[in-house]
Amino acid sequence: MPGIDYPALRAAIPIEQVLALLNFQPSHRRDRRLRGPCPVHGSNTAGDRRCFSVHLDRHVFRCFICGAQGNQLDLWRQVHRLPLYEAALHLCRHAAIQPPRLAPKTNHHNSKTRNSSPPSPPPATD
Ligand SMILES: [Zn+2]
């Protein structure tokens, strides 16, 4: 299975959309920066309402309490506690887009065809 093109995925889903999918309610907004309760560690108390900081243009977030930080895919991964690959597929499902895939490598350039043994044909089932 081809891998996921993570840069393409991040380009397709802005952090603003991830926040919307997480029902993030900012408590403060200044230009393109948001503050609010942290969806990663689930802060709800009044004192926690500003611990989570997001920069919408740079697509990064940071929590000053639990220390979570990263890009929008990291946010989704940490909120749902999934491995990166699973998180990417999960996020694409929620965003209703096809996961961007890396182009499959068609030529098996495993380098150094030593001894010139002919490459065995791949099995018919792909
Ligand atoms: Zn947090």
Q: Nutshell version of this structure?
A:
The protein has helices at 6-12, 15-21, 72-80, 84-95, and strands at residues 28-30, 33-36, 52-55, 60-63, 69-71. The protein has 126 residues and is an alpha+beta fold.
Topology:
Blueprint: H1 6-12, H2 15-21, E1 28-30, E2 33-36, E3 52-55, E4 60-63, E5 69-71, H3 72-80, H4 84-95
Antiparallel strand pairs: 1-2, 2-3, 3-4, 4-5
Helix pairs in contact: 2-3, 3-4
Bound molecules: zinc ion.
Q: Low-confidence spans: pLDDT under 50, at least 5 residues?
A: none
Q: Count of DSSP helices?
A: 4
The CATH C-level name is Alpha Beta
How much is the average pLDDT? 88
Could you say how many structural domains there are in total?
A: 1
Q: Which band does the percent of strand residues land in? A: 5-15%
Describe this structure in words.
The protein has 126 residues and is of the alpha+beta class. The chain is 28% helix and 14% strand. Helix 2 packs parallel to helix 3 (72-80) and helix 3 (72-80) packs across helix 4 (84-95). The model has no long low-confidence stretch (mean pLDDT 88). It has a single domain, classed as Zinc finger, CHC2-typedomain (DNA Primase, Chain A, Alpha-Beta Complex), CATH 3.90.580.10. Strands 1-2-3-4-5 form a 5-stranded antiparallel sheet. It starts with 5 loop residues before the first helix and ends in a 31-residue tail after the last helix. The chain has 4 helices and 5 strands, in the order H-H-E-E-E-E-E-H-H. The chain binds zinc ion. Zinc ion (ZN) binds next to loops.
